[in-house]
Each structure stands twice: as C-alpha cells, then as structure tokens.
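not sure who needs this but someone in the group chat was asking about DUF1707 domain-containing protein from Sphaerisporangium flaviroseum so here u go. i didnt clean anything up, its just raw.
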Amino acid sequence: MGAMTKDAGIRAGDGDRDRVAEMLRTAVSEGRISFEELDDRLGRTYAAQTYGELDAIVADLPQAGNLAERRPNAHDAVGVLRLHTRGGRLKKIGHWVVPPLISARCTWGRVKLDFTQAQCHHREVPIEVDCGLGDIVIVVPVGWSVRSDEVTTSAMGKVHNRPPGPPAPDAVVVRLYGHVRIGDIWVRYRHRRG
C-alpha cells in the first residue's frame, strides 16, 4: 500500500524516517537502487513530514507496505542511544554506559561521541551513522579498533580514520555503518581518562 492509504496524512517521526533509511540501505546492498538514488531518497526521507511521503519513497521496493501499520523493532524501543541533530551540536562525553546500539545522525552541525571515560561492556559497538552536511566525531581509547568499511560515502563525504597503531588483543571494536553525503566522520584516538 502506498501514499493513498487512509493514514497517509499522519505526521511521521524520527523512528519512521530511520526505518525507511534502513530499507533504502538494504535496497542498495541488494542492487535494487544505485548510490545516486540512495542519496536522493535519503534526502527526501529526512525531509518527509508524513507517512504518505515516506510510503512514496519506498513504494517500488519489496515489502514496503504501509508505514502506518508497521511496528518498531526491538532496537527502536530499548538499548539505543540516539544522537540526532538537524542543526547545532550534540555530544556524549564524560562518564556514561555504552548501550548495545548507537545511532548518530547530523543533517547539519556536529555529533560527538567520546568513549575515553565511558563504561563499555560490549566487545563490539555498532554505530549507525548518517552524516549530511555536518560532522560526526568519534573519540575512542588508544587500543580500540574502529571499522568503517560498511560506511558508504559520496564524492564529497569522507571517513577520516588513522589509528596510531595496531589494536590491543582484547580491543573493543567499534563498527560504523551507514552513509556520509557531504560531511565528514572523524575518528580520533586518545588515551583513556578517569
């Protein structure tokens, strides 16, 4: 069902836009749409205001269905740290407990995640990234490993990741996945504090 459903005019939320973005990324990985289409559709996704607009973006993809009838998956409800900004600065620094999943998105502005004083009980920390015109800064302790091979970039977007040396044998692995359009992702390595 597409944009003509009875719920097409209901206002969409960030979780709805996130689900559409994930559908689009899956479509790219399956070869259903190109990276250029992904850029265009992601831009329309994060600008969409209603279910009808979101339905129209994925109407030609398998299992699109009606967004108003979808229920969030487990990650939408619990265990997710969301740092999403359309402008301005958001940061998670100091003492904090690392959840099982992190979502960092900046349409414009900056998101900063500093793990140097964080308590991390996970061997792997997945971070979903979506970087528009801004920057995402990820600061990890020296010895951690940051993998960015699952991040797609446009001609103008970049991931800057220069580890100072090999990871420690028991290193926490931060796995980045998602997309960078025009902005940058900066990975910095610092000695652990606190």
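also Confidence is low (pLDDT under 50) at residues 1-6, 68-77. if thats useful
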